[in-house]
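Hi R.,

Here's the input for the uracil complex you asked about:
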Amino acid sequence: MSELRHEYLAALGIPVWVQRDCAADVADTQSSGASSWQDLAGRVRACTRCVLHSSRTQTVFGVGNVHADLLVIGEAPGADEDRQGEPFVGRAGQLLNAMLGAIHLPRADVYIANILKCRPPSNRDPKPEEAEACMPYLERQIAFIEPKVILAVGRIAAQWLLQSDQPIGRLRGTVHSYGTASTPLVASYHPAYLLRSPLAKAKAWEDLVLVSRILNDPS
Ligand code: URA
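And here is the predicted structure with uracil in place:
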């Protein structure tokens, strides 16, 4: 059912029943029931919702300022992040820090999280069922943080957050809207891709300027 139709029916006071799969229901209840940030963090630490729990060293909940204006969302922990329990601590993380520094944002001022809280083995792409199981946690984090803007780095983060199958080259460069709070969302290249393709850094810079403009918009 389209969102608009959904809104009309809700405005008319007509209850709308949407069929969902059972796993998604359980996932939502387990995360959206979290009454506080600490509660949510505890639920993530104990999570066994997908197969990745059996191969992780630890979960990677996120790091930074929980009152941040900017929320950066990546794909999933890699080997370094799995070991240290913190997102973006490897080479890609160093580049991300430099990118944030270029718009005068120290890493500690933003919040950084991923679509997945657990490392996929051999750094493979997240499977749809893994992302679906994990997304309610991130959605709850976003609701708690209430960022002024979200920066989705990489195809996986951008596609999952925007529910799109467009390539990252198409998704970047404009301001999207995320969720019921219509949070501005900018998609850009993943720092790991930028390490391999430095020529794309010029476009990533344009995306950061866009983010910076939204952050500095007084309205
Ligand atoms: N790549 C990501 O997408 N996230 C991390 O935390 C590290 C590398």
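One thing worth noting: Residues 74-78, 81, 87-88, 92, 114, 154, 192 surround uracil (CB under 6 Å).

Cheers,
M.
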